[in-house]
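> forwarded from #structure-qc
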């Protein structure tokens, strides 16, 4: 059976979409959305209200 001499290593690209970056972005978005809902509940109205 033939086996390769060198096992290729995947390198992460310097920029662009990464799984861990996308996961972090989603978590931060969820925290922001929950904070917005909490503020709206405490104030009794939304933040984007024209007065």
């Amino acid at each position: 059976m033939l086996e390769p001499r060198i096992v290729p290593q995947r390198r992460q690209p310097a920029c662009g979409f990464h799984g861990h970056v996308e996961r972090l972005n989603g978590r931060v978005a969820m925290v922001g959305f929950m904070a917005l809902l909490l503020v709206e509940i405490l104030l009794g109205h939304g933040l984007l209200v024209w007065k």
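QC bot note: The mean pLDDT is 84. The radius of gyration is 22 Å.
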